[in-house]
Amino acid sequence: MTFRSTLATCAGIALLLVSQVACAQTPAPSAPAAAVSPESLTIAREIVTIAWPPEQREETMAKTMETILKQYRTSMSFDKITDPGLRKIIDDYLDSVPTMLRPLVQRFLPHQMEAIAVAYARKFSAQQLRDVRAFAQTPSGRGYLQGSIEILSDPTVAQANTVFFKDVADLTKTKAEELTLQVAEYLKAHPEALPKAK
What we know:
With about 200 residues, the protein is mostly helical. It has a domain of about 120 residues. Helix 3 packs across helix 7. The radius of gyration is 22 Å and the shape is extended. It starts with a helix and ends in a 9-residue tail after the last helix. The N terminus is likely disordered.
């Protein structure tokens, strides 16, 4: 692995992580949302509470992030980095990602859970929500809803995700190089566009 491709790989990791956090915290512009009925919202919140028990949410999200990160690391060719110092920098950074993101997750989770409840209330009728709640209150329903996110750890899903992340990394590397070249050429032709030092 060349130094250039190593840097591109690291840039891809950074871009992926930053984009995921940005997507989670920056709402996309959309048309005004339809109002939801109080009854539907109450039922939807009950479903969310069953699916994601409040006392387990943070740990569940942490495990999910670790699962995704592990699959991403598996998809990358870090074993080709033979320099121990460079390998340690990358390993240390990736090891720090869950801890680094945990404060963001702590702030994000309450808003996300409420947003999911509102979305359920908007998407489904009160009767549909009552039916889902009835299912969620059974042992099978509770187990299904609470275990759904753990599907990410299933070997078949993990294998599919690993292939996906590798393809994303390859695409990101190519596009990052193209973007860097385009920006450099533009700034060379338009130096006035360079950010002014404060």
